[in-house]
Predict the structure.
Amino acid sequence: QVQLMESGGGLVQPGGSLQLSCRASENVFNFNYMRWYRQSPGKERDLVAALTVGDTTHYAESVKGRFTISKGGAKNTLYLQMNNLQPEDTAVYYCNTNIVARHFWGQGTQVTVSS
């Protein structure tokens, strides 16, 4: 059982920045994939960014050039640096990983972008 816990969400003005953290119960460097998803009210949960064990990254088109996914100095932490935030980035952000077919999720952290 992998436990994930997100933090770092909050209220920010358009153009602002936030860094989300995802603390895992195991070393994140051991997972083939770690991902950030987001979900807005009434919408499906969408993939925002993914990071492979070999440090290959993937981003949704809507966040390319603004968001950066990384594994931090603490071996059990995944980050999402979000810059130039816009109102359409408002959502609950979730950390995710999987072991074969079993997926693990955190409880989510709310990001609200509003003036």
User: Anything to note?
Assistant: The chain is about 0% helix and 50% strand. The mean pLDDT is 93. The CA atoms of residues 97 and 103 lie 6 Å apart.
